Amino acid sequence: MKRFLAAAVLALICSAPALAATLPGHYYLNGRSEVGSELLLKADGTFQWALMYGAVDQYAHGTWAAKGDEVTLTSAPQEKPDFALFEADDYGRTKPAEPGLWVAIVGFPHEGPLAEVEVLFESASGKTATAVSKRNGDAITNMPGGEQWQRAGLRMKGAATDYQWINLPADRAKARLAGFTVKNREAFTPSAFKTMTLTVEGNALHADSKSGLGIGGTYEKAK
Fold first, then answer.
1. Which class is domain 2-77+190-221?
2. What tens digit of pLDDT does each residue of 16-46 get?
């Protein structure tokens, strides 16, 4: 009996890595009308997940782990926006700011503005001023003509995080106008779930209504 139990435990331990090795790949939700969902399990232990239902789009990414016949998805913590300067071509026909004004344009070039971003303007002498980007993406402040814009600190309005500081190139400082974008758009998309547990059923992964998905369904692995 002891030998049988030991063999069973050993088989279970050995099967876990083997199971994990077969899991990576693309999975698609099957059997749910008007609901589309895709799950990508990567061999490096990370995942990407998306669900589309009518006008609702949900996303998640993070890490996955297999234990027994279950796969647990754990979403990554919400990211902070990663701000960056516009590229030279992103300014289009914008003109230098009026004397006495400093302008920060916040948004996604050729797509649209980003409101509610707090911009801390700092001059070479250490003088500072703060403005929040409006619906058109502009954050504007008054600054004496003798001051030279050196850098800008950015964060979302109301955020408790530190400013992300970005030094201005000479041409932007001279124009008193600089553009800022966000490199990681996923920072604005909350994760659809914290954890989701799926049951391995052959080449499929089954989610019940308590899995974290909120609806039951089976993810079939693409061939």
1. mainly beta
2. 455 667 899 999 998 777 888 999 999 999 9
Q: What is the pLDDT of residues 94-147, one digit of tens each?
A: 999 999 999 999 999 999 999 999 999 999 999 999 999 999 999 999 999 999
- Domain 83-187 fold: Immunoglobulin-like (2.60.40)
**In terms of DSSP bridges, do strands 177-182 and 101-108 run parallel, antiparallel, or are they unpaired?**
parallel
In degrees rounded to 5, what are phi and psi of residue 176? 60, 30
How many CB atoms neighbour CB 97 within 10 A?
Answer: 18
Domain boundaries, the chain: 2-77+190-221, 83-187
pTM of the complete model? 0.66
Rounded CA-CA distance 162/16 in Å is: 43
- In DSSP terms, 149 is beta-bridged to 123
Q: How would you label 107-128 residue by residue, b for 16+ Cβ within 10 Å and e otherwise?
A: beeeeeebbebbbbbbbeeeee
